[in-house]
Amino acid sequence: MSAPDYRALLSAALSFKRRYPLHTEGALRDRTIYFLFYNASLRTRSSFQTGLARLGGNAIVLDPHTGIYTPALPDAEIPYTTERVADVARVLSSYGDAIAIRMYGTPAGWVYGAAHRHLEAFAEWSQVPVINMECDRFHPCQALADVMTLREQLGGLTGRKLCISWAYSGSWHKPVAVPQSLLLAAVKTGMDVTLAYPPPFALDSRIMAAAAQFAGQTGARIRVTHDLRDGVTDAHAVYAKSWCSLNHLPQYSGEGVDEAGMHAAFERHRDWCVDADIMRLAAPNAGYLHCLPVDREQEVSDDVVESPASWVFQQAANRLHAQNAVMAHLLNPGSLT
Question: CA 192: distance to chain centroid?
């Protein structure tokens, strides 16, 4: 989306939230969305289904592992086990009004971009909208909830400073989708973004180039640092979470993750944890954000998550409202006004 269109969607989402639920009931009456979860989910699954039900629609959850023949691209088909994505997309779009998919990591063999290509194949063959509930490149619904929270907490976002930081976790199994989508969303709103991460954890260069292009349009600034304390200093909001190193993911299907290299990259940076001392470097009244689930005492200390500076549960609540706005935007745009 263009920066102006994205800001319009953000404003519509905040407005839709203010009217929810009494003045939004029926916005998606008799609409049906098919949900395919290749990965575990708490917030995404429950917020989408709750929101769709409250707006009058019907959620049908299809288990892509055992409930149906697993949708697959042509190079991954197995007789009587999979069904080509092109066929699944055309069938489902003849029944319902949208298809929502969550897929990253193991179901795509951890080949970076493979899950996103899966969603793109659905979009190519579907006659109805396809919603990305998180892939290996993007998590747009989370990002919309994030900037909703930032707008509610900070007011105008132009010129506000956001630190997006890598943080240590005992597990490397986290895609780069959240920081990449948040970076794009933040610069579209005019925020100045500092990316803080150890050198092995750089984001996709194509995403960085796209963010720089949007920043040129909005006047936002992007800065990169490899020092956590430098990144947090004077930030109005600190979004610190873990993500994997793209350097150690396989490039082709059938190759394995460089587990030893990935583990070593993580273990060298165990000190990348946001605690109360780190948060004191941020601007007065700065907030801490995380998409959840959070690895407590690894990514962030308990005292930060449970402090008044924590905005994480407001973020989680805003997933419902962000996704309601996305569904309405796609299926009944007149209900957003």
Answer: 19
pLDDT tens digit sequence for 284-323: 999 999 999 999 999 999 999 999 999 999 999 999 999 9
Q: What string of DSSP letters covers 142-174?
A: HHHHHHHHHHHHHS--TT-EEEEEE---S----
E runs forming strands in 248-334: 287-289
Residue whose C-alpha is closest to residue 147's, from 291, 293, 330, 305: 291
Separation between Cα atoms, residue 277 and residue 304, nearest integer Å: 10
Q: Cα(123)–Cα(205) distance, rounded to whole angstroms?
A: 24
Other beta carbons within 10 Å of 225: 16
For residue 294, give the nearest of 178, 204, 185, 199 by alpha carbon. 178
Place of tokens 């587990």: 259
Could you check whether the bond before residue 293 is cis, i.e. omega within 30 degrees of 0? Answer: yes
- Following CA atoms 39, 293, 264, 202 in sequence, which dihedral angle do they give, to the nearest 10 degrees? 80
Within 13 Å of residue 80, how many CA atoms lie on the same side as its CB?
Answer: 0
pLDDT tens digit string along 11-69?
Answer: 999 999 999 999 999 999 999 999 999 999 999 999 999 999 999 999 999 999 999 99
State whether residue 132 is helix, strand or coil: strand
Two tokens, residue 88:
């699944």
Identity (one letter) of the amino acid at 215?
Answer: A
Q: Is the pTM of the predicted complex or chain greater than 0.85? A: yes
Q: Which residues of the chain have pLDDT under 50?
A: none
Residue type at 151 in one-letter notation: R
